[in-house]
Amino acid sequence: MLGYAIVPASHGIVDGGELGEQAEEIAGECGRRGLELLELVREREPRNGKGLERPGLGYALERISAGEARGLVVSELSRLSRSAAELGEILEWFTRSEARLVAVAQGLDTDERGGRVAARTLIEVSGWERERLSERTQNGLRAARLNGRRAVADDPELRGRIARMRAQGMTLQAIADRLNEEGVPTVRGGAKWRPSSVQTAAGYKRRPRPRLESLPGPQGSRGEEG
């Protein structure tokens, strides 16, 4: 297993203190469960707090995807992301990949039935949160149209949502498809969203790691530890 520890963006050094406490909790949990801790990945939280823009987490998931580790151990689920919507996407990746996730504070282990049930529940809550954001976006666009606003920049909620989808690794076409499926009206009155209108809305941004949708499931057998 890999361990993952993260400190707030305000911390000057990625070592000691809070990070040391997380490291102890992770090592102790691995000892209790008879797991081999291959590496503890440490990093500082990005200033925007987004769980899907963390190179260290991306590195850990890529190693799991490559079959170099069986799963991930964290001191608590909030270390993966502070956003319910993003946490759900990360949990979906673990579920889809049949990778193991252990969260010490919650007593969660997706190799156990109770842990799998808890993960599915959190994924459902995440889906509800995404639907809520979509509804708020549509309401904001309708209000913008009524007020005569025609530019995407005038609707920060839509602009922010598109930026978040880009941060999650979605292509411009995938974002356009999602907005069209949800019936989100285009700001300039077009028939439907296209990659070009999405790019105009938020500008091109390099997709950061981890790119969850592009990562395959872990290689090797389900029964291997490590």
Q: Report on the biggest sheet.
A: 5 strands, mixed
General shape: elongated
Oligomer: single chain
In the sheet with the most strands, the strands line up as 2-1-3-4-5
Helix content: 40-55%
Based on CA atoms alone, the radius of gyration comes out at 19 Å
Strand content: 5-15%
How many E-type strands?
5
Mean pLDDT: 79
* Ends distance: 5 Å
List the uncertain runs: 149-153, 204-209, 221-226
SS element count, helices: 7
SSE series:
EHEHEHEEHHHH
Class by SSE composition:
alpha/beta
Description:
By secondary structure, this protein is α/β, with parallel strands linked by helices. The chain contains 7 helices and 5 strands; from the N terminus they run E-H-E-H-E-H-E-E-H-H-H-H. The chain has a 5-stranded mixed beta sheet with strand order 2-1-3-4-5, sandwiched between helices. Helix 3 (84-97) crosses helix 4 and helix 6 (172-181) crosses helix 7. The longest helix is centred in the middle third of the chain and has 34 residues, at 113-146. It starts with a strand and ends in a 24-residue tail after the last helix.
Strand-helix topology:
Layout: E1 2-7, H1 17-33, E2 39-44, H2 55-65, E3 71-74, H3 84-97, E4 100-103, E5 108-109, H4 113-146, H5 156-167, H6 172-181, H7 195-202
Parallel strand pairs: 1-2, 1-3, 3-4
Antiparallel strand pairs: 4-5
Helix pairs in contact: 3-4, 6-7
Summarize the structure.
With 226 residues, this protein is an alpha/beta fold. It is 47% helix and 10% strand.
Any key phrases for this structure?
single chain; 226 residues; alpha/beta; 7 helices; 5 strands; elongated; disordered C terminus
